[in-house]
Amino acid sequence: MNVPTYSLAERDRRWALAREIMEAEGVQALIAYGEHECADLAPFAPDVYFTNDRPGAIVIFCRDADPIELTWSTLPVADHIQALRRGEELWIRPERIRVAKHAAGVVEVLREHRLESGKVGVLGLDPYPPFHINPIMPHGLWNQVLAELPGVEFQPVGLSYLFATICQSEEELAVVRHSAATGDAMAEAMVEAARPGASEADVYAAGMTAAFRRGLAAPDMLISSGPGFVSWGPPAWSYRPQAPRVIEDGDVIMAEVFCRFGMKETQHQVAIAVGEVHPDIEVGAKVARAAYEAGLAAARPGNTFGDLVEAMRAPLEEAGAWNVHPLVHTLNPMGPVCGFGAGLRRLPEAARYGRLFEVPTMGGELPLAPGMTFAFEPNAVIGDRLTNLGGTVVIGEDDPIELNPLTAQLLRSRP
Predict the structure, then answer these.
(1) Cα dihedral 329, 330, 333, 336 sign
(2) How many CB atoms lie within 10 A of CB 29?
(3) pLDDT digit string (tens) for 141-161?
C-alpha cells in the first residue's frame, strides 16, 4: 500500500504559517492548546498541526525560535524516543520537548523568552464548532496563567489560524485522498454486511475492520437503522446498555463514517437500502442528491460558504423537507457550518421538550478557495423518514473535486 507521509518541507511551511499568524495579529508568541489524545469526533488539534506528533500537547512559538512542545506525561516522550530509534523523521527536537502541559509550564516558557509583557496569541480561546461551541481551554489552567502573567495581553487567534490553514497543500491533499479512499472501502464493507438478521454492530464492525486493515487507527461512525427515523448520532448501544438492533427487510441503514489519517479528516455519508424501503426514503434520496448536485455547482472560487449553503438548501425548501444535521461544513480545520435542526419542532413530541432552537449557519462569509475541503452531507426528512448521503469534496481551481461519489447516492444491499 502506498501511504503518503509529510516531509520537513511541509513542517517548514506550517511553521512559517505560525509566524505569519503572529505577524498578522501583532503578537510576539503563539500558544496552541491541543485537546487530549483519544478525542472522538472533530478533535481540536492545532498542536499536531505544528508537531506531526502525538495529540494532546501545548505548543508555543516565541518570536523566531523553534516551537516548544509541552506534553501531559512521559508517555509521549517515550514514543518520541522510540521513533528516533526507528529512524523516523521527527519535527520537534528532543531539547524542545518538556513534560509540562500545565500553567507553570506555559509561564516558564514565556518568562524564558522575556515575554512577561506584550501580546501573545492563543489557539484555544475561540469557539471551535460543531462540538466546542465554548472555548476548549481549561478554566483552571488559564486562570493560573493570567494570574502569573498580569502584564501579558492574551488574544484569541482562531480565525487567523482558520484562514491560514484551511487551504491544503499538495502533501496534505495526498493524505486527504488516502483517507477518502479508506472511507469508500468502509462503505463497501458495510454494504456487504447489511443483511436481514445481521445487527447494527455487524455492519459497524465491517466498516471499522476495513479501516483498521488500511492503517487508520482512529475511524469513527454514527449509525442508525430501521424502516424510518429522524434521529442522528452514535448507536444507542455505544452509550446505553442494550443490544444492537437487528436489521430487517425493508430497513434503511444510515451512517456517517469519519476517517482520520495524519489528523486530516474525511467524512462519508453511507445510506444503505435493505430490500424495498418506504417510498419516503426514495424521495428523500432524490432530494438529498439534488442538494448534493446544487452544492457541487456552487462549490467554486468566487462564491462564499453562505452561497454554498443556500444552494444546497433550495431543493429541501422546494420539497418541504428539513435537515436533521448540517448539509455541509468545512473540514481541516472544522469551522463554518450549515445550520440545522429547525424542522424538529414539526414533530408532535417536540412540544413536550424545553427550549428548542436550531443551530444557525456560522461562517457564511468565508470565501471559497482552491484546496479547501468540505463534508457534503445533504440530508432530507420526508414525513418522518431521514435520508442522508454524500462525501468529501475539495474546492478545485475551477470545478470541485468529488472524492467520494460512491456514497453520494442511496446504496443497495446485495442479496
Answers:
(1) negative
(2) 23
(3) 999 999 999 999 999 999 999
pTM of the complete model: 0.94
Domain 8-165, second-level architecture: 3-Layer(aba) Sandwich (3.40)
The rounded distance, in Å, linking the Cα atoms of 379 and 389 is 6
Is the pLDDT score of 212 beyond 90?
Answer: yes
The Cα 11–Cα 392 span in angstroms is 25
- Cis preceding-peptide flag for 130 (omega within 30 of 0): yes
Pairwise CA distance, residues 361 & 345, whole Å: 18
Answer for the pair 248, 286: CB distance below 8 angstroms, yes or no.
no
Per-residue pLDDT reduced to its tens digit, 1-10:
789 999 999 9
Which residues have CB under 8 Å from 322's CB, separation 6+? 316, 342, 343, 344, 346, 380, 381
Q: Which one-letter amino acid corresponds to residue 215? A: G
8 Å CB contact between 259 and 183: yes
pLDDT range class, residue 39, cuts 50, 70, 90 = confident
Alpha carbon 66 to its chain's center: 28
| Residues forming CATH 3.40.350.10 domain(s) in the chain | 8-165
144 Cβ partners below 8 Å, 6+ apart? 103, 104, 107
Which pLDDT band, with edges at 50, 70 and 90, does 70 fall under? very high
Domain 170-412 fold is Creatine Amidinohydrolase (3.90.230)
Q: Three-state DSSP class for 128?
A: strand
| Cα 85 from chain centroid (whole Å) | 32
Task: Give the tens place of pLDDT for each residue, 231-262.
Answer: 999 999 999 999 999 999 999 999 999 999 99
User: CATH 3.90.230.10 in the chain, residues?
Assistant: 170-412
Among candidates 184, 127, 25, which has minimal Cα distance to 334? Answer: 127
Please state, in angstroms and rounded to a whole number, the distance separating the CA atoms of residues 75 and 78. Answer: 5
Q: Where are the beta strands (DSSP E) in 262-298?
A: 264-273
Say yes or no to pLDDT of 340 above 80. yes
If you compute the radius of gyration of the chain from its CA atoms, what whole number of angstroms results? 22
